[in-house]
Amino acid sequence: MKFYLAASFSARDEMRAMRDQIVSRGHEVTSRWIDLDLSIAGIDKPEENPIQARGAAMVDRTDITKSDILVLFTKTPSTTGAMHVELGIAIGMGIQAIVVGGRTNIFQVHPVIWHMKDEVAFLRYLDHIRRN
Q1: CB distance 71 to 6 below 8 Å
Q2: What phi-psi label fits residue 70: left (phi over 0), alpha (psi between -120 and 50 degrees) or beta?
Q3: Are 18 and 119 in contact (CB under 8 A)?
Q4: In DSSP terms, which residues pair with 99 in a beta bridge?
Q5: pLDDT less than 50: residues of the chain
Q6: 24-60: pLDDT as tens digits
Q7: Number of structural domains, the chain?
Q8: Concatenated DSSP letters for 4-62?
Q9: Which of 1, 60, 110, 117 has the fewest CB neighbours in a 10 Å radius?
Q10: What does residue 93 show for φ and ψ, rounded to 5 degrees?
Q11: What is the pLDDT of residue 49?
Q12: H or E segment at 100?
């Protein structure tokens, strides 16, 4: 399966580690944002760098469309709200989504969203689908 990891940009180190866990279980991660250096990319200030920010948004949307499941990690709060937009894109496109951690807005309780308590529960889910 192909997974898109949505999380706060400040959690990208944790998302790289999660990517390693997912890949080690035989899956793919489509999220390129976790390898970006925000200051070099110039997207940390969209008002000053609208072209770079627009490009990053299009890359993220493309990566979401390439996934089978979007996984939203809510442990680290978002400072930009982008991870919530990514969830909305997935819902709108009919891509399955999983919220890992606490629910932080009404769309995270949408009937099509699966919920998992934490990263350990998510990894157990991956182990389960690998066996079946």
Answers
A1: yes
A2: beta
A3: yes
A4: 72, 115
A5: none
A6: 999 999 999 999 876 666 666 777 778 888 888 999 9
A7: 1
A8: EEE--GGGHHHHHHHHHHHHHTT-EE---GGG--HHHHTTT-TTT-HHHHHHHHHHHHH
A9: 117
A10: -95, 0
A11: 76
A12: strand 96-100
